[in-house]
Design goal:
Blueprint lengths: L4 H11 L4 H15 L3 H16 L7 H16 L3 E2 L2 E5 L4 H14 L5 H16 L9 H12 L6 H16 L13 H10 L6 H12 L7 H4 L2 H10 L6 H17 L8 H11 L5 H14 L6 H9 L4 H12 L4 H23 L53 H15 L2 H16 L4 H13 L3 H21 L5 H13 L1 H9 L6 H13 L5 H18 L7 H11 L5 H18 L7 H25 L6 H20 L4 H23 L10 H17 L3 H6 L7 H9 L4 H17 L8 H12 L5 H16 L5 H24 L12 H15 L13 H10 L5 H15 L3 H7 L4 H12 L25 H5 L19 H32 L2 H10 L4
Antiparallel strand pairs: 1-2
């Protein structure tokens, strides 16, 4: 089929940045055509593949690359069909064959970018099972023949090597299957031969490919592991720093995942790594430092590590000085940081002189990932560097404004690991003299590195020795918060946060009551640094640690804390502002309703910023503009903060509740419309929708039943059900998850808001409950359906509302109860069985006849009982599940359940064991007595069979309050159930049954259910 001129014209328009209108129109036309039907999708995919592989000069190279990118994106993440927003487009059989042929052609293209794009498309398609290796034997034949051919520097050779690398990195298991006759058995020796290739980039890729199999460790690697280690050793002094770095990285992987294979080589490996620590290439030094980080983290090489530390090898004496040297900023780094400091000071002066002119400075910020806790119920590089490394900071060494994982941070983290695992009597005499000299240095940068090291060794292993010196060190650290060097103030704040536990102990033991107030005041003071954002970030991070560890001691400081932080809302920007939002969220989380007295200090400013965010986002959404830029992402932590404060403040939030609701609904409406006109993208592009839904949910949770009154005044109440329905059907799993959480809370607190759309909402929720690829959304769907059913209990109107959907719902829930696995054989994640069991109980409480066809069959009751036995921490949800089960066993059905389908004994034992789930001591520890307060713990196998008896009386009260009628009634009903079971079994069968019960359950029944 010839290339369509229309598709070429679209590619031309997409690359014409001089005509934005044509570019926008082409993009919209393409998006609407791609997801209209599978045939239309296949047509465009075929044309993209043909354009990319075109070699007759009919398609210019830059258009070929664009076609390749479009092919890659749409193969990797096909759009959702317009006719079914929960189903992605798929390729026709003929299209798949044509795409495969075009991709093989592109792998041999002289243009490196085309080869790279083709290899990425292939790997993505295989990883996502859009194309299988079994259905494409020509691919593996091409790879094998190209890598072993005479010309090992040809275009096909490089295309084949890049492809096998990417497949190995993305889906290594796909090359180690019986159906393919385990191609790795041939490929691993081929790759080992390439370790000696004359081109460094080839050697590097070959090492990276082998490296990809360390985790799954197939037989082909196991039988060749000595050859791998030997060949890596030969490359330890390779002229290419990239090769040396991959050698070190592969050894780190082996140490982390397969330590047993390198323990006998540990001494020469350590020699190589000690030399590599000082490699001229910092990447090699970083990889070597990561080796020692892993060495002192691993529990698999304790004995070998002990010998290296205590023997004449003198590992610590040789290692620690180099690590300490790496914690000091280099001269080049110092020069850069001083320039950065000066620029920040100039910027702060300009901002102070004319703040209006700099309002736009807040827009260009680094992305901050929204943290969604709304779970309910239970780029390609050059040929010389092809690996896609997105190293993330481990969160422990926040001493720099950048989040990158650096040699300095890794060195500090390695010192931390050594301090945690090495014998302190050997380690401390080595490091303390250098540390003492550094802390006493007149050089700010040396002192800064020493304070970093002090924080790094603040571990339990070395803690006592350090704490002995803290009475002298602590005033010194507080004094460093006044240093003129911002980097010194920053690292001091971090190190002080490592000693918060010691400060709390001093306060609680009344040894020194001044330390905690001084720490809070000092950290707040530098958090308000109006010049250096890195100081703000470090101080706010430290303050979060203080609040989390000492909230019970600083509640009387809240007014002062809010006064200072509320002022900071007006001046902080970018990452500092994001962290400040997190501080407000942490305060709400830790102090709860106690923050209400201070709401007037911060909520007006937060609301003002929320309105500014809406003013920024709405025009972008309504114009079809990009929604993943910095300005939009800056709004996410703000919305998360507002959602949490709305939930925490409850009725104290009512002054801002209506405005918050209107702003959030306006965002959801504009966002859904925007996304309906655009192709599907990454989850990040829809996080603003998740946040907006969470804001509404926070309001619902906060004001509870009063939300119905609030909702009546909302400007967008008339279209709300359409917005909610559209959000639950949305193609992003994250959006669906938040929308389903909102649906459940509305059913729980404000059912009248969803009553008119019950049928449509429960139907789409049931569809989400079977979306096994997205278990979090599935979980929330089950929970929300349960809440909807609960509101329909106790009335004929409620029963008639549920009845049209009951049969399908029972079928879905039955599959969860009976299966434990989904249709693909994958085990359901935690929480799903529990939620399904509770929802089944809530449905049964509407009308137990809904379950009449399943409750007497297949051992169903026993398996349902197991689901209720699991960790359902919410007392009311657990009670709903059990009450529904009891309802199903009434009306004479118990006898049939106990004798039906040869599953009677399992049903009986399951029921009796399930009763024990109400008696587990909460917060118990193995061997302990447990806590007799409110709450429930999971009845595990250990509890049932432990030598320690961990059961208590049935909890008919919560949190030390009076008796709860619902729980008193349930206790009585369970006792009656036990008596009825015993009568139906008869004396002989009952005696047999008692022998099948765990001893602790039998003791419980004898003590708590006297009918036994």
């Amino acid at each position: 089929m010839p290339i369509s001129p229309d598709v070429v014209n679209v590619l031309v328009a997409l690359t014409d940045h001089t005509n934005p209108s044509a570019h926008h129109n082409a993009l919209q036309a393409l998006n609407s055509s791609l997801n209209s039907t599978n045939e239309s999708f296949s047509f465009f995919i075929t044309n993209f593949a043909q354009c990319m592989s075109s070699t007759d000069n009919t398609v210019p190279n830059h258009l070929r690359q664009i076609a390749g990118y479009l092919l890659k994106n749409n193969i990797n993440s096909p759009p959702y069909l317009v006719s079914n927003p929960l189903k992605r487009c798929s390729l026709t059989t003929s299209t798949t064959q044509e795409v495969q042929n075009c991709l093989l052609t592109s792998l041999q293209d002289p243009d490196n970018e085309i080869r790279k794009t083709a290899s990425t498309v292939i790997s993505s398609a295989i990883s996502n099972s859009i194309i299988t290796l079994e259905s494409w034997p020509n691919l593996l034949n091409f790879i094998s023949s190209s890598l072993t051919g005479v010309n090992n520097n040809s275009f096909p050779f490089h295309g084949a090597l890049l492809t096998i690398l990417k497949i190995s990195q993305d889906s290594p298991n796909k090359l180690d299957t019986d159906t393919l006759n385990r191609p790795l058995n041939q490929l691993v020796p081929i790759l080992l031969n390439l370790f000696t290739h004359n081109i460094p980039a080839v050697r590097k890729r070959a090492i990276q490919t082998i490296q990809s199999y360390v985790e799954i460790f197939p037989h082909a690697l196991a039988v060749n592991i000595e050859h791998v280690i030997s060949n890596l050793g030969k490359l330890a002094s390779d002229q290419s720093s990239g090769v040396r770095q991959e050698v070190a990285t592969t050894i780190v992987h082996l140490l982390d995942l397969r330590a047993e294979y390198i323990t006998k080589h540990l001494s020469p490996i350590c020699e190589f790594m000690l030399v590599s620590l000082s490699d001229a290439d910092e990447g090699v030094g970083l990889a070597a430092t990561e080796f020692f980080f892993s060495l002192f983290s691993s529990t698999m090489v304790n004995e070998q590590r002990r010998k290296l530390v205590t023997s004449s090898f003198n590992l610590l004496q040789r290692l620690v000085p180099t690590l300490l040297a790496h914690t000091v900023y280099s001269a080049g780094d110092v020069a850069d940081l001083l320039v950065e400091n000066s620029n920040e000071e100039d910027k702060a002066r300009n901002f102070a002189l004319n703040p209006v002119a700099h309002q736009g400075d807040n827009v260009n910020v680094a992305p901050v990932h929204h943290k969604n806790n709304n779970t309910k119920g239970n780029n390609e590089d050059s040929d010389d560097d092809d690996d896609d490394d997105d190293d993330e900071d481990n969160g422990e060494f926040e001493d720099e404004s950048s989040n990158s994982w650096t040699l300095r941070k890794c060195s500090a983290a390695t010192i931390d690991k050594i301090a945690s695992s090495a014998p302190p009597q050997i380690f401390l005499p080595i490091i303390l003299p250098a540390l003492e000299a550094g802390l006493g240095s007149a050089n700010d940068w040396t002192r800064e590195a020493a304070i970093l090291t002090l924080g790094a060794i603040a571990t339990d292993n070395c803690g006592q020795k350090i704490e002995d010196s803290l009475p002298q060190l602590y005033p010194f650290l507080i004094s460093q918060l006044s240093s003129a060097l911002p980097q010194l103030r920053s690292i001091t704040a971090w190190t002080l946060s490592r000693f918060v536990g010691w400060v709390v102990y001093q306060f609680e033991s009344k040894r020194d009551l001044s330390l905690l107030p001084t720490l809070v005041e000092s950290i707040l003071r530098i958090a308000l640094d109006a010049v250096h954002s890195k100081v703000q970030v470090a101080a706010l991070s430290a303050f979060i640690a203080i609040v989390e560890q000492s909230s019970h001691l600083i509640e009387h400081f809240l007014e002062t804390i809010y006064q200072n932080l509320s002022n900071a809302l007006l001046t902080m920007r970018n990452r500092s502002l994001h962290l400040l939002y997190e501080v407000f969220s942490t305060l709400a989380d830790c102090f709860g309703e106690a923050i209400a007295a201070n709401k007037g200090m911060f909520m007006p400013t937060l609301m003002g910023k929320f309105k500014i965010c809406n003013e920024l986002m709405l025009p972008l959404l309504r114009s079809g503009g990009a929604i993943s830029g910095g300005g939009v992402r800056e709004c996410l932590p703000l919305m998360e903060c507002i959602a949490l404060n709305a939930s925490t403040l409850g009725m104290d939030y009512q002054a801002w509740a209506l405005e918050t609701l209107d702003l959030a609904l306006e965002l959801i409406e504009a966002g859904l419309l925007h996304c309906s006109l655009a192709s599907s993208g990454s989850e990040e592009e829809y996080e603003f929708l998740i946040c907006a839904l969470d804001v509404v949910d926070g309001l619902v949770e906060g004001v509870g039943a009063n939300f119905q009154v609030l909702f009546a005044s909302a400007s967008r109440k008339d279209g709300f059900l359409n917005l909610l329905h559209g959000s639950i059907k949305f193609f992003s799993p994250g959006v669906r998850m938040s929308a389903l959480a909102l649906l459940g809370d509305l059913a729980k607190y404000a059912p009248s808001t969803i009553a008119a759309g019950f049928g449509e909402l429960v139907t789409v929720a049931i569809a989400c409950a079977t979306d096994f690829k997205n278990p979090m959304a599935c979980n929330n769907a089950l929970w929300s359906i349960g809440e909807m059913c609960k509101k329909c209990q106790g009335s004929e109107g409620g029963r008639s509302t549920v009845e049209p959907y009951a049969e399908r719902l029972v079928g879905v829930l039955k599959a969860f109860i009976l299966g434990g696995t989904n249709t693909n054989g994958l085990v359901f994640p935690n929480g799903i069985l529990e939620n399904a069991s509770v929802t089944l109980g809530r449905l049964a409480a509407v009308d137990p006849r809904y379950l009449s066809n399943v409750v007497e069959k297949e051992g169903f009751v026993g398996l349902w009982s197991v689901g209720l036995l699991k960790n359902i921490g919410d007392v009311w949800e657990k009670a709903d599940g059990y009450n529904g089960l009891l309802a199903c066993l009434g009306g004479g059905r118990l006898g049939a359940v106990l004798n039906g389908d040869n599953c009677g004994p399992s049903n009986v034992s399951g029921l009796l064991i399930a009763i024990s789930g109400w008696h587990v001591c909460p917060n118990y520890e193995e061997g302990g007595e447990g806590d007799e307060g409110g709450g429930l713990s999971e009845c595990t196998i250990a509890v049932l069979h432990s030598v320690n008896y961990m059961f208590r009386e049935f909890p008919v009260s919560i949190g030390g309050g009076g008796e709860v009628p619902v729980l008193v009634e349930l206790r009585g009903n369970l006792r009656s159930l036990v008596l009825e079971v015993m009568k139906l079994c008869g004396e002989v069968e009952w005696a047999k049954l008692k022998n099948r019960l765990p001893k602790n359950v039998l003791r419980l029944l004898e003590e708590q259910y006297p009918v036994i």
